[in-house]
Design goal:
The model has no long low-confidence stretch (mean pLDDT about 95). The protein has 13 helices and 16 strands. Helix 8 (about 285-305) packs across helix 10. By secondary structure, the protein is of the alpha+beta class. The strands form two sheets. Strands 8, 9, 10, 11, 12, 13, 14, 15 and 16 form a nine-stranded mixed sheet that branches.
């Protein structure tokens, strides 16, 4: 039997019996959008994981970025003993992991004892919003456009240099440059081909504005499937970079130049698979689209925490940077937070707020929840904006993580659509980051104050 990107259990069993697969990565997405889990042997996978699931410490949904145990989470704590939760494999995600020899990967839903879905798990949160959408006879299709900066340093070298004096893979702005992207084509080509071999269809790769900055784009698809592919790609790209003695970062703002975005595209379809953002004439925005956009614009300040989850995220939002500062929607207008583009079935909303550091499940869950509020509440349409949104008198994106966390914590809308347990959980995530940052003494402070204060 020939190897296929998507694997059934019999196909995986056959490959394991022939010695072609000796490792299965069993992973779930954490709050920060990273894959966490275990590498298991085929015999154990078939004897135990497929029938009984796997287990992992509950702290994986209650840590900071450094995987430290931190206070404030009701889900788990030292007082509750940091017990296990369940990694429940979603066998529809089983595929080859061709960037690692002899490996396959399966993504899991996180469940509590008794196989109750963990309400604060990002994948669960997206599924809950999709169920709400399904009640209206609608489904969500999406794509994410992740940018990263590549360096000709290893991760260990970058750490030892304190991330100073790194060598970017390109020395000049190589946005759309064929010559500039040729410099890194050996690595980018490996990533593209590895994703294709894993059944993750690549549309294109291109250069971006910052030094060493690139983007790889993937085919549009159902929302959960898109997020699954996003987190697999992000993990694989870093692993391939390691194998090539390079390093890539998806952080939202590495330096004072352009940040790494994760423009997130979303459209809705009815049960027949038809686009619902256009009227029957095939040209005019539909009433449902106008309601959806009104909900998105009204509630974005309250859910900005899911679009910009870290302190660094808010440094992307700068005038004239191609990262938005104003809350507006416009047709093919890159100065707006929400750019509408496409034709016919492909018409979609591009959310330009997320950076490369986002959790894709949370972004789409938040977008759907806000848009549904507009549909269910029949919100008054917000006129399309034309011109330069950077300089217009428009509502603004929250300025800091502290501002966004406060709006989220106090939001009646967020409590209603996500649940109070979710709001408390992710508000605490923001508090943990803010407390850690506020306790740190930075290089900026030393350079500014050491002699002159």
């Amino acid at each position: 039997m020939a190897a296929t990107p998507h694997l059934t259990l019999p196909e995986l069993k056959g490959m394991a019996d022939r010695g072609e697969i000796d490792t299965i990565i069993v992973a779930a997405c954490d709050m920060q959008g990273r894959l966490q889990g275990k590498r298991v042997m085929p015999k154990f996978f078939f004897e135990s994981v497929t029938s009984e699931a796997a287990e992992g410490c509950s702290y994986l949904l209650a840590t900071d970025i450094e995987c430290g145990t931190v206070p404030g989470y009701e889900l788990t704590s030292w007082e509750k003993g940091y017990g296990d939760f369940i990694f429940a494999p979603d066998l529809s995600t089983l595929r080859l992991a061709p960037w690692q020899p002899g490996a396959a990967i399966v993504l899991c839903d996180i469940e509590l004892k008794g196989h109750k879905p963990a309400s604060v798990s990002p994948r669960t949160m997206l599924k809950q919003q999709l169920n709400r959408l399904k009640a209206h006879g609608l489904s969500a299709w999406a794509a994410t456009e992740l940018e990263f900066i590549m360096f000709r340093n290893t991760y260990e070298d970058a750490w030892n240099k304190a991330y100073r004096g790194l060598t970017p893979a390109n020395q000049y702005n190589n946005d759309y440059s064929i010559l500039g992207t040729a410099r890194v084509e050996p690595i980018i080509r490996r990533i593209r081909n590895a994703m294709e071999a894993a059944g993750i269809q690549v549309e294109n790769s291109k250069g971006e504005c910052n030094l060493g900055q690139h983007e790889i784009n993937f085919r549009y698809g159902p929302a959960v499937e898109t997020c699954d592919k996003h987190v697999i790609y992000k993990e694989a790209a870093k692993e391939i970079a390691v194998q090539e003695n390079a390093a890539i970062t998806f952080m939202a703002k590495f330096n004072e130049r352009e940040g790494n975005s994760c423009h997130t595209h979303l459209s809705l379809r009815n049960e027949a698979g038809d686009a619902v953002f256009l009227d029957a004439d095939g040209h005019s925005p539909s009433k449902l689209f106008k309601q959806f956009m009104a909900g998105l614009l009204r509630h974005t300040p309250e859910i900005a925490l899911f679009f910009a989850p870290n302190i660094n995220s808010y440094k992307r939002y700068a005038l004239g940077s191609f990262a938005p500062t104003a809350l507006a929607w416009g047709m093919d207008n890159r100065t707006c937070a929400f750019r509408v583009l496409g034709h016919g079935k492909s018409i979609r909303v591009e959310n330009r707020l997320p950076g490369g550091d986002v959790n894709p499940y949370l972004v789409l869950a938040a977008m759907i929840a806000a848009g549904l509020a507009g549909i269910e509440g029949d919100y008054e349409p917000v006129p399309m904006f034309t011109g330069n949104a950077y300089t217009a008198d428009l509502p603004r994106v929250p300025h800091t993580l502290a501002d966004a966390a406060k709006l989220f914590a106090q939001s009646e809308f967020a409590h209603a659509v996500f649940g109070t347990d979710v709001v408390k959980h992710y508000t605490n995530m923001a508090k943990v980051e803010l407390d850690a940052f506020n306790a740190a003494v930075t290089d900026w402070e030393r350079f500014r104050s050491f002699e002159r204060m």
